[in-house]
Design goal:
The chain is α/β, with parallel strands linked by helices. The protein is built from twelve helices and 21 strands. The strands form five sheets. Strands 4-3-5-6-7-8-9-14-13 form a nine-stranded mixed beta sheet, sandwiched between helices. Strands 10-11-12-15 form a four-stranded antiparallel beta sheet. A four-stranded mixed beta sheet has the order 20-19-18-21. A hairpin with a 2-residue loop joins β18 and β19. α8 runs parallel beside α10. The chain binds adenosine-5'-diphosphate and zinc ion.
Length: 439
Amino acid sequence: MLDKSEYLHPDKECLSREEIEALQLKRLKETVKHCYDNNEFYKKKFEELGITPDDIKTLADVCKLPFTTKQDLRDHYPFGLACVPLEKCTRLHSSSGTTGNPTVILHSQKDIDEWANAVARCLHMVGLRPGDVFQNSSGYGMFTGGLGFQNGAERLGMLTVPAAAGNSLRQIKFIRDFGTTAIHAVPSYLTRLKEVMDQEGVDPRRDTKLKVFAIGAEPHSEEQRKRIEDMFGVKAYNSFGMSEMCGPGVGFECKEQNGLHFWEDYYIVEIVDPVTLEPVPDGEIGELILTTINREAMPLLRYRTRDLTRVLGRTCPCGRNHVRIDRMKGRSDDMMVLKGVNIFPIQIEKILMQFKELASNYLITLTTDDDNDNMTVEVEIEDLFTDDYQRLQKLQKDVTRALKDEILLTPRVKLVPKGSLPTSDGKAVRVVDKRKVYQ
Ligand code: ADP
Ligand code: ZN
């Protein structure tokens, strides 16, 4: 057990397993009653299942509750899942809605406060304190990574720079002028930022005070994290969030970097088989299901995140017993099925990152050629190698073989000059599917 000053909320962070579960049961009962008493959608679902809040007697009874999905949020857009009158709400966030009705999450002032506390706890956990300068390089507006980190970093008492996404030259100027010690950004953006630093002759070790990155909002491999840490000489901590669960602050790595601690005083975490929806044992991969137990305006019961991961453990050398969850393997909807083989983009990334000759940006394109489905992996190479054709040929062969060993299919590998693939300020687009769909 570390010194109490290592924890922002020792009374919550240092609970034993029994204490965590007792608190969860108390909060679950309150949440369930609140949903049943104050929302027609939930009441109807309970009636269909023949249950009432009194049926929740133990934590295991969470399995009796109905699942909630993104489709439910869409069908009851915008405020159908609210459990308090609109006058009690002070903020809403919404997804982009590119694939249908957007989803909306309403927050009361208490929800916003608790969310800020959760994010502050995460940032404190990785060593940030008042006196640090926190630059938030994620989009603001409806995207929860903006205001979510802003409020959490301010709550911790850091000088917080709402830099927002993009404009790398300006980011670098802020980092140097304001003495930024910590940045939150999507991992793919940090590799882009480093390219611009290189072009500008800025050495992060020599010319900046950076010491901590919070990276998240998109899947990334352990290899990608290590790369980012080596490029900058900065520790990078995985940050998991989703707008339906408020946003950032749901799960965050501690200094041990051995999985994400999900805050169990805020959420009940289940991992289930995505087909049978039955719980899977610890260590087995399944779909992450989250129930909010510390939210009043729009609690979500057993929300199906579609993210695939597993439980790594329930203790940690850092002294926190909040469940440790593995980095996300991907979303069930990101999975590519090529010639009957299931492949996640992160598997490809993991292999590419093992070649130091390759840069960090890559794009997977699926096509149908002569009625055959194929995968092309384009990956940028470090400038040093562009003129050595023999070496490039060998590299291309080696990368192809390594990918085949991982995914059991032979992709076409194209090595392309650094800077030639599209980049994004937000979440990276890793897969383009141009296959013909046969009806
Ligand atoms: P946010 O606005 O917080 O990014 P979204 O609702 O847009 O939330 O996206 C949430 C999704 O982003 C998650 O369900 C997950 O698929 C992905 N995601 C977020 N953080 C991570 C992370 N650290 N690792 C992998 N995937 C992540
Ligand atoms: Zn820990």
